Amino acid sequence: MNKAKRNVVIAGNWKMNMTPAQTTEFITALAPMVAGMDGCKIVLCVPYVDIAAAVAAANGTNIEIGAENVHMEAKGAYTGEISGEMLASCGVKYVIVGHSERRQYFGETDVTVNGRLKAGLANGLKVILCVGETLTEREQGITFETVSKQTKIALSGVSAEELANVIIAYEPVWAIGTGKTATSAQAEEVCKAIRGVIAELYSAEAAEGVTIQYGGSMNAGNAAELLSMENIDGGLIGGASLKTADFTTIVKAAQ
Ligand code: PGA
Fold it and tell me: Tens of pLDDT along 70-82?
């Protein structure tokens, strides 16, 4: 495995936070703080209503904008949903699919996640696929089975060529928003297992190239250690992505 060959991606997931005005203020403040830090991709995944403000504020900086979900269909009677074409047309480059909050609160399944992932890819977006076990699943000893199944179903029908635009975020559900981070050894173990699943589904070469992030209470204090692990190529950051100083420290740790 050659970690140096992989893209490192630090992505913020703002969830349901920030108005357009706050978005402009945040990115205007963040941009000079992370200027020149080109050792990783810097992405902010923002609520739909903030996309226009985010794309405008990030224009000419090294920050790219993502969305937090995408619908599987191209258009039609899907009240409240947003298509991949709509996102791409607004300047969005990345999209998260399969976040555990979507699975937990909005009935998303591995099958809907697969549809959304393919819709993102079909519209030229880079897709951040979230997988991760609940505390019960960890305690039952089925962490690997859980993430393996989530990964396999989400990637069903995705070609090796398309996989180049997929980033996998390992997010143990018990670590999200709880302040309870997985240890670097726990995170590394599962990220390595996910890489093994990619090798099995595609090839050793594909597995070596795929970016695998860790997410779940990653913060300014623990990012450097997590990011130093062989199989962790970045982070998906919730709470700490809402603070310019903390997010900058994480980006710096990824250089
Ligand atoms: P957290 O969220 O960093 O606030 O734990 C991570 C995520 O949900 O992506």
Answer: 999 999 999 999 9
C-beta 215 within 6 A of ligand 1 = yes
**5 pLDDT more than 90:** no
- Residue 12 beta carbon below 6 angstroms from any ligand 1 atom: no
Report pTM: 0.98
Confidence grade of residue 1 (pLDDT, cut at 50, 70, 90): low
Of 64, 68, 71, 99, catalytic: 99
The closest residue, in CA terms, to atom 1 on ligand 1 is 238
Best residue among 130, 237, 246 to mutate for probing ligand 1, ranked by most atoms within 8 Å of CB: 237
| DSSP character string of the chain | --GGGSPPEEEEE--S---HHHHHHHHHHHHHHHTT-TTSEEEEEE-GGGHHHHHHHHTTSSEEEEES---SSSSSS-TT---HHHHHHTT--EEEE--HHHHHHS---HHHHHHHHHHHHHTT-EEEEEE---HHHHHTT-HHHHHHHHHHHHTTT--HHHHTTEEEEE--GGGTTSS-PPPHHHHHHHHHHHHHHHHHHT-HHHHHH--EEEESS--TTTHHHHHTSTT--EEEESGGGGSHHHHHHHHHHT-
145 is catalytic: no
In the predicted structure, residue 204 carries a pLDDT above the cut 60: yes
Which atom, in ligand 1's list, is nearest to the CA of 101? 8
